[in-house]
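Handout, page 2. Input:
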Amino acid sequence: MNPSPGPKITDGRKIVHGIPEDVTVALRSVSRSFRGWGSHVTVTRPLKDGGALEFGDRRLEVLHRPGHSPSDTIFWDTERQILIAADHLLPKISSNPLITRPLDGSSKRTQALTTYIESLKKTREMPAEIVLPGHGEPITDHAELIDSRFASHDRRKEKIYRLVAERPRSGYELAQALWGNIAVTQAFLTLSEVIGHADLLVNEGRVREADEHGVIRYEATS
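Output:
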């Protein structure tokens, strides 16, 4: 999934979440190189949520689980209780809900982490005996693993809240406070992480977005 185009540069130096322009230039270069790894294909059979794929004696139900990317899809073998999860659920690391273009082509940013958590809640309720991830070993305790992911997101959310409570900060400033120079070398990933958790705080009413000369800064509501 290609990253979304960068937010509009507002003052010739910074964009809406506070990233310096020279960093955005580097990010666009990395994005172009990633796109070069793939190739265009012609889709002959679009998959729909709730549809099915038939393979001899095996039937896989198609389930849309957006979050890590807006098009994330998992495949459920009801008879064998096997879930093919790709990057929707990984055994060792938490899938990063990435800032991406909405599938409907709109310009409004989707709340990737909020969407991902809702998708994980649905997956948690599935009676899967084995989950086959895109990386790592098979997962046999998916509900317990998902609960640990929820706890991890809560901890990260509270850490970001404490930083915002100290003083208003942009998404980029929050990323720097959390990860230092990694916020520069991995700006796309770290900003996706910060904005996702800030969305949770905004939805809870504990944080609001304040526009400061075209740069959004998160500030505590009390």
